[in-house]
């Protein structure tokens, strides 16, 4: 795992953007930035349809656009480019960022063939120090036979999208491990939304080994206000432990962006969900 920490807490906003352009590298699996804190934030909203503006939004988007093309989906929070992550009462028992049960490790949108390359998270509030769970497993030391089977086997990923439109994407048949000559090993992971019934006995045993590898590499990273986290969605799974929300305006509040190295490759194809972008 390659973790890069960047402290910009004493820089002016315009200097931060310029410095980040020099500092950011796709060779890092995880990049954590500390920004200057600004004036007191509004209370944590109760729903993403509320007024969710924060004093960090503009700078967060500028930084994200230096990583790649920021995009959204028509079925995700009404197509918002910056999505809100905070507890919502009706979602409390769901495997969602707005839930409060243990959010299992996963890579984002595993059932979509056009998922983000990088995820960006901004922390607006986290007084309760609720951590992110992150896992960047090292596949180089894994038995070659197991790696080959994970690359060659096709697993069925079930669609888990919290869609706000009637249409739900279809399930996706895919390998869960890929090897790139330029980027090394890349993986897709969501053990909650995978069809175990379609696995052979051998595939199920391999997938259990895959789960053990990913889960054993888990670390905790607690974000503070004015911190930004970028993770490689093909190198790093993410989740969150269970917590007890208060719904009183002081709960943990993150914002998220989805970033593509080249969103035009998605726009040129016909998809069942519209890609939303501002490029």
Could you write a compact summary of the structure shown?
Helix content is 18%, strand content 26%. A hairpin with a 3-residue loop joins strand 10 and strand 11.
Outline the secondary-structure elements:
Layout lengths: L2 E5 L5 H11 L6 E5 L22 H11 L1 E5 L9 E3 L17 E4 L11 E8 L6 E4 L8 H9 L2 E3 L14 E3 L2 E4 L3 E4 L13 H16 L1 E4 L5 E6 L4 E4 L12 E8 L3 H4 L7 E3 L2
Parallel strand pairs: 1-2
Antiparallel strand pairs: 2-13, 3-15, 3-16, 4-15, 5-14, 6-13, 6-15, 7-12, 7-14, 8-9, 10-11
Helix pairs in contact: 1-2
Description:
By secondary structure, the protein is α+β, with helices and mostly antiparallel strands. It has a single domain, classed as Clavaminate synthase-like (Double-stranded beta-helix), CATH 3.60.130.10. Helix content is 18%, strand content 26%. The chain has helices at residues 13-23, 57-67, 144-152, 201-216, 264-267, and strands at 3-7, 30-34, 69-73, 83-85, 103-106, 118-125, 132-135, 155-157, 172-174, 177-180, 184-187, 218-221, 227-232, 237-240, 253-260, 275-277. The strands form 4 sheets. Strands 1, 2, 3, 4, 6, 13, 15 and 16 form an 8-stranded mixed beta sheet that branches. The protein has a 4-stranded antiparallel beta sheet with strand order 5-14-7-12.
What attributes does this structure have?
Double-stranded beta-helix, 279 residues, eight-stranded mixed beta sheet, four-stranded antiparallel beta sheet, alpha+beta
């Amino acid at each position: 795992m390659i973790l890069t920490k960047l402290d910009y807490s004493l820089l002016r906003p315009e200097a931060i953007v310029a410095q980040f352009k020099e500092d950011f590298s796709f060779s890092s699996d995880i990049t954590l930035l500390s920004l200057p804190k600004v004036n007191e934030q509004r209370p944590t909203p109760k729903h993403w349809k509320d007024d969710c503006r924060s004093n960090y939004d503009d700078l967060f988007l500028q930084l994200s656009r230096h990583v790649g093309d920021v995009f959204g989906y028509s079925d995700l929070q009404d197509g918002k480019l910056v999505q809100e992550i905070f507890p919502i009462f009706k979602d409390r028992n769901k495997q969602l960022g707005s839930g409060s049960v243990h959010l299992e490790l996963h890579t984002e949108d595993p059932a979509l063939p056009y998922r983000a390359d990088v995820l960006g998270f901004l922390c607006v509030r986290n007084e309760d120090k609720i951590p992110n769970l992150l896992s960047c497993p090292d596949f180089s030391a894994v038995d070659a036979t197991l790696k080959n089977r994970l690359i060659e086997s096709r697993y069925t990923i079930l669609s888990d999208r919290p869609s706000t439109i009637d249409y739900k994407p279809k399930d996706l048949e895919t390998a869960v491990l890929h090897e790139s000559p330029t980027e090394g090993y890349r993986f897709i992971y969501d053990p909650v939304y995978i069809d175990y019934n379609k696995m052979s006995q051998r595939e199920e045993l391999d997938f259990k080994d895959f789960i053990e590898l990913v889960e054993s590499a888990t670390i905790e990273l607690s974000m503070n206000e004015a911190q930004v986290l970028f993770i490689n969605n093909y190198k790093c799974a993410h989740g969150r432990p269970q917590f007890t929300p208060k719904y009183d305006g002081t709960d943990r509040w993150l914002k998220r962006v989805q970033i593509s190295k080249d969103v035009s490759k998605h726009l040129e194809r016909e998809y069942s969900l519209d890609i939303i972008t501002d490029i």
